[in-house]
Design goal:
Blueprint (H helix, E strand, L loop, with lengths): L7 E6 L14 H18 L3 E4 L12 H9 L6 E4 L2 E2 L5 H15 L3 E6 L6 H4 L7 H17 L3 E3 L7 E4 L12 E5 L3 H10 L3 E4 L8 H13 L7 E9 L3 H19 L8 H7 L7 E3 L1 H15 L3 E5 L7 H22 L3
Parallel strand pairs: 1-2, 1-12, 2-3, 3-5, 4-5, 5-8, 8-9, 9-10, 10-11, 10-12
Antiparallel strand pairs: 6-7
Helix pairs in contact: 1-11, 2-3, 3-5, 6-7, 10-11
C-alpha cells in the first residue's frame, strides 16, 4: 500500500430507533442530534469517514442521507461524508447526483455515494417500484448515475425511466469526479459488476470473514479483466470498544442482543455464548479492547486486502457517552496502531 493512500477508518449508522440505556424508546429528533454529535466527535478525533444509510421504516431515523450529511458537513472540517447506502434501485439517479453534488459543495469536496440495491425492500412499494424488476432497476440506474458523473450534458435511454437528451445535470461537485462506491452483501455477481465498472467496493462483514476472501479475489480479477486499475475495498462491521475486552462485552451484550432481535429476525435472540463466538478473534463482530480490534482489522486485511474500515456504531440503545467514548478509542488508539502495523 502506498504512503499516499493510508488505511482509512470511519464510522456509520442507519439511525436505529431502539430503546435507550434507561429502556425508553429513542425518538427520531433525539437520535438525529446524537448522529450529528457522532460526526463532530469523529471529525475532531481524526477519523477519516462518516456515513449514514437509508431506510424507510418507523424504527430508523435516516431516510434521506444527503440531508443528514449536509447538516454534518456544516459542523465538520475534514471527514469524508458518505451514504451507507443509497438505495439506488428505488431512486432517481439524476436527483441522487444533484443531492450529493450539493453535499460536496457544502463540504468543500468531501462527499461520496455508496450505491446499493438495499437489504430491506420497503422503499420499492413506497416509490412505486416493482420488486419483480429489482435487478433491472439497479443495473440501469447505476449505468445512468455513472454516465451523469462522467458526462455533462448527458444523453441516455433505458426501460426504467424517461430518456435524457443532451440534458444538463447541475450543480457539478467540487471534486473532479464524485466518488461512487458499490455496496455488496455477499453476491458474486455484484462483486464482478463492481470490478467490471471499476468501482471501489464495500463488503458488509456479517458472517465468517474468511468467506469474503473469494469475493475480494473475484472482484480484483474482474477489475483486471476489464483493464482497469485495482479497485479499493472497504469493510463494514458492527463495532463497540472499551478500554478492556471484558468491560466492552459486558456493556455491549444486552444492547447488541436487542439489536439483533429487532433487525435480524432470522437469527432471533442472541444468547451470550453466541455473542462471544461472534466477538472471538475469528468472528465478524468487533467488540472488545482497542488491541483486540486492531488485531481483527489486521487479520481481515490479510484476507481481503481492504484499505478502509467503517464501524457501525450506536447499536441497540447504547448511551451517548458510551458511543462517543467508543468512537474516540477507534480514532485515538485503533487507527494509529493499524497504520503503524501497515508501515504507514
Amino acid at each position: 500500500m502506498s504512503q499516499g493512500a493510508p488505511f482509512e477508518i470511519g464510522i456509520f449508522t442507519f439511525g436505529e430507533l431502539t430503546r435507550d440505556a434507561d429502556g425508553k424508546p429513542i425518538d427520531a429528533a433525539t437520535r438525529m442530534r446524537d448522529i450529528l454529535e457522532w460526526a463532530r466527535v469523529a471529525d475532531q478525533a481524526g477519523l477519516d469517514v462518516f456515513g449514514v444509510g437509508e431506510h424507510h421504516r418507523e424504527d430508523f431515523a435516516v431516510s434521506v442521507p444527503p440531508v443528514v450529511l449536509a447538516a454534518a458537513a456544516a459542523q465538520t472540517r475534514n471527514i469524508k461524508l458518505t451514504s451507507t447506502v443509497t438505495v439506488l434501485s428505488s431512486a432517481d439517479p439524476v436527483r441522487v447526483f444533484e443531492d450529493f453534488s450539493t453535499v460536496d459543495l457544502i463540504s468543500g469536496g468531501r462527499a461520496e455515494i455508496t450505491a446499493g440495491r438495499g437489504a430491506y425492500l420497503e422503499s420499492f412499494p413506497l416509490f412505486g417500484q416493482s420488486l419483480e424488476r429489482y435487478d433491472e432497476y439497479f443495473e440501469e440506474k447505476l449505468d445512468l448515475l455513472l454516465k451523469i458523473r462522467d458526462e455533462n450534458p448527458v444523453t441516455w435511454s433505458g426501460n426504467t425511466r424517461a430518456p435524457l437528451d443532451e440534458a444538463g445535470v447541475w450543480p457539478r461537485p467540487v471534486q473532479e469526479q464524485l466518488p461512487i462506491w458499490a455496496a455488496v452483501g455477499g453476491t458474486p455477481a455484484s462483486a464482478v459488476r463492481a470490478g467490471r465498472l471499476g468501482l471501489p467496493l464495500y463488503l458488509a462483514i456479517l458472517g465468517a470473514p474468511e468467506r469474503f476472501g473469494p469475493l475480494a479475489q473475484l472482484y480484483r480479477r474482474a477489475t483486471h479483466e476489464a483493464g482497469r486499475e485495482p479497485g479499493r475495498i472497504g469493510v463494514t462491521s458492527h463495532f463497540y470498544a472499551e478500554e478492556t475486552s471484558q468491560g466492552a462485552r459486558n456493556s455491549f451484550y444486552p444492547h447488541y442482543s436487542s439489536y439483533i432481535g429487532q433487525n435480524m429476525p432470522r437469527v432471533g435472540f442472541l444468547d451470550r455464548e453466541s455473542f462471544e463466538a461472534w466477538a472471538s478473534p475469528r468472528g465478524a463482530l468487533l467488540a472488545g479492547s482497542p488491541a483486540e480490534i486492531v488485531d481483527k482489522i489486521l487479520w481481515e486485511h490479510e484476507i481481503l486486502g481492504h484499505t478502509r474500515f467503517l464501524a457501525q456504531v450506536g447499536l441497540g440503545g447504547l448511551s451517548q457517552a458510551q458511543t462517543l467514548r467508543s468512537v474516540e478509542l477507534l480514532a485515538t488508539e485503533v487507527l494509529p496502531q493499524v497504520r503503524a502495523a501497515l508501515g504507514q
